[in-house]
């Protein structure tokens, strides 16, 4: 009986660890190549605002962080830096700076989702024509699947 219990527990544990590693590794394995330095530079030059993602935000932790420079323009948002890898990242603009899940959820109805973040080292996201970045002051990376705050930067 002890042997069967040990086998069940060990298999469940190995399965859980494998699942967790898969959640972390799969986005890295399927991520497209980041934009070229030339693309980043061209779009950065068109930016009107800039900000910094920092690792030490209240809602960031060892597995959920970002650091680097973000440039916000009328047509695109450019990030030069690194994000902790994860699934289903979305880019939002917010009228207020937030740095926790609770603050994000409280203000979510006043935010606008700009698009998907598919790379973890540098990204370029097109701003839809219907979105005016001047109406907001903060850019946020959010994991939609797990309702997890990743990082934020005030840009004006």
Task: Describe, in plain words, how this protein is organized in 3D.
The protein is of the alpha+beta class. It is 29% helix and 33% strand. It contains three helices and eight strands. It has helices at residues 2-30, 37-45, 101-107; strands at residues 49-53, 66-72, 76-83, 89-94, 112-117, 121-126, 138-143, 148-154. It has a four-stranded antiparallel β-sheet, covered by helices on one side. A four-stranded antiparallel β-sheet has the order 5-4-7-8, covered by helices on one side. The longest helix has 29 residues, at 2-30. It is elongated, with a radius of gyration of 18 Å. The termini are far apart. The mean pLDDT is 91.
What's the helix count? Answer: 3
Q: Give the class from helix and strand content and strand pairing.
A: alpha+beta
Radius of gyration: 18 Å
**Widest beta sheet: strand line-up:** 1-2-3-6
First-to-last CA distance: 64 Å
The biggest beta sheet is recorded as: 4 strands, antiparallel
Silhouette: elongated
Q: Report the count of strand segments.
A: 8
InterPro entries: DM13_domain (IPR019545)
Protein name: DM13 domain-containing protein
């Amino acid at each position: 009986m002890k042997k069967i219990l040990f086998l069940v527990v060990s298999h469940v544990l190995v399965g859980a660890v494998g699942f967790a590693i898969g959640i972390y590794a799969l986005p890295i394995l399927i991520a497209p190549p980041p934009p070229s330095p030339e693309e980043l530079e061209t779009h950065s030059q068109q930016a009107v605002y800039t900000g910094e993602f920092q690792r030490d935000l209240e809602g960031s932790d060892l597995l959920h962080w970002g650091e680097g420079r973000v440039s916000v323009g009328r047509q695109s948002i450019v990030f030069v830096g690194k994000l902790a890898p994860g699934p289903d990242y979305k880019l939002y603009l917010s009228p207020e700076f937030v740095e926790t899940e609770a603050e994000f959820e409280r203000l979510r109805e006043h935010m606008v989702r700009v698009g998907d973040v598919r790379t973890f080292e540098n990204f370029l996201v097109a701003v839809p024509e219907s979105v005016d970045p001047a109406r907001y002051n903060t850019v946020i990376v959010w994991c939609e699947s797990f309702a997890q705050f990743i990082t934020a930067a005030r840009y004006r």
